Fold this protein.
Amino acid sequence: MDLSFTPSEQAFREEVRAWLAANPSSVEPDLASHDLETRVAAGRRWQRRMHDAGWVGVGWPKEHGGRGVSLTEEIIFHQEVARAGAPELVNVVGINMLGPLLIEYGRPEQKARFLPGILSGDDIWCLGMSEPGAGSDLASLKTRAVLDGDDFLISGEKIWSSYASYSSWCFLVVRTDPELPRHRGISCLAVPMNTPGIQIRPLVQIHGDKEFCQLFFDEVRVPKSALIGELNRGWEVVLATLHHERTTYALSHQVVLQQYVAGMLDAAREAQRQGRSGIDDPLTRQKIAQAMIEVDVLGYYSMKRIGDIQKRGLGAESSVDKLYWTEMNQRLQDTAMSILGPYSQVTSGERAVADGRPIHAFLHSKADTIYSGTSEIQRNTIADLILGLPR
Ligand SMILES: Cc1cc2nc3c(=O)[nH]c(=O)nc-3n(C[C@H](O)[C@H](O)[C@H](O)COP(=O)(O)OP(=O)(O)OC[C@H]3O[C@@H](n4cnc5c(N)ncnc54)[C@H](O)[C@@H]3O)c2cc1C
């Protein structure tokens, strides 16, 4: 395995780094706001700025508005964004999941209609998959779309739909034929969120943000042209979406986590325990060393995965990607909490650590092993599809 970067990859890294140095995300101070709406508005401005410079959808093909860079360069790009401390783009679902899907499964007119808005951030997308009775067992979903002349008529309920309150489009997974076996009879639709009959109810998460929502559909009418992929063959599209989601984060997160561990080291040096520096505590040292090792392992693993993906595509290994980084992140966050001690709980005022971000990150990490398939489901997939263990 060759772990070195080619001269052109190095040059690409320099180009990204130089642009981010000249255009720091600090030009949008509201990106760090505690208020979701303020943060989203700043996120739109930041995405527009990056888009204007050609830095959104770098891995998308050029003919679809991307930069057409290789997977390795895409990872380099994410590394540099993380190193510069720039935030995740506001249209993260659109760029990482819907764009690649539309490029693969969309009709030419859908690509022309949707891809530019996804890149510019004018059209933010959410995913409408989970339902109150269909999470891990997604194929049991019940939201119905019935053909009525030239339209689909949608009725049902979705839940945990991230970013739905400020999305203009929903990638909605519906049952179009209840007579077919469970994994058949499912289709995917592009639904404008302002269509009459859609009710959006934001839900408060453990960290206080209302990032995800419950969605109610009461005879919502969309044209037949909303169909993405083939009628009743949407399961294939759903699996592709999940593979994209599971892998993208794992491969792009190493530098974020590296910086997190560096922050833990600083915090341990500053923390005082019974008159001694926190870093003198052997257990703390051991935990930080363990965290450093795990983050390095993720880095090497990512390099190996890039090679595999280039040869064989994403596949079921995306479950390994997701399982490793999310459980590791939770261990890191636990360590951060134990280093900061009671101060981790202070979110404002002069004793607040980093403006309350560590406790927010700790609470946010609890969701990592749930969304995009829980850890138990990833383990089942690995056992079943990779290790070939009996059910
Ligand atoms: C922050 C966040 C954002 C999300 N964003 C979205 C989104 O944008 N769009 C969307 O559609 N959904 C979203 N989800 C929903 C997410 O995909 C589901 O929560 C997840 O798939 C689990 O489904 P569930 O909550 O219904 O739990 P359940 O499926 O009811 O599972 C409950 C428990 O049982 C375990 N379990 C279930 N089946 C098995 C099994 N076969 N073997 C072993 N254990 C099992 C699970 O691991 C879990 O611990 C989000 C969730 C979170 C937390």
